[in-house]
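Hello forum,

I keep getting stuck at the same step: I have a sequence, I want structure tokens, and every attempt I make locally crashes halfway through. Rather than fight my setup again tonight, could one of you with a working pipeline run this one for me? It's a single chain of 183 residues.
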Amino acid sequence: MDQPAAQLESEPRAVYPPPPNVQWIALIGLQIFFASMALLLLPRGFGALVANLALDAWAVYLCLWLHKLNPEFMSIFWCTAYIALQIAFTVPGAPIPLHSRFTFFAVSLAMLAMVLWLVTIYVIRAELHFHYNVSEPIGLYLSGVMTFFFSFVYFQYHLYNIAQLKQRNGDKPFYYQGGPPNP
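Reply #2:
Ran it on my machine without issues. Output:
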């Protein structure tokens, strides 16, 4: 029961919101600028917290965009859990007494925060793979090693290229080959 190709092409395709159209170098520049301003202008404890949250802002934005693509995606949950733990770990002005049980608790929170960060970036990677290989098949591949070292900058490199291809191609299907679009 094969359908003719003309019938398949005439079926309406789902229209998804385009990925964030921000170059990865601009993302790095903005993150450095906001983190630097927070560290320079705010008191020491608050500056570090706000600098970390400035770096996390893009993660939240990306997770919200993914949640718009598919409400079943769970990256926003993991990102929120990470940020809540990060805030709890870096409570401004909280002294950490040396050689106490609290030190063990603080180190445990820091380790858990690192694990949650890794879970968050790999959940986002899996969701991007699912969306761009199943829901909107264009052939996206994200390296696990590059994800580990560069996470959101690496994601944004590919998302910017996809946004450019979508802008150029309109509704026509295309296959993403992992680099900047050719003119």
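The longest helix spans residues 101-135. If your local run keeps crashing, start a new thread with the error log.
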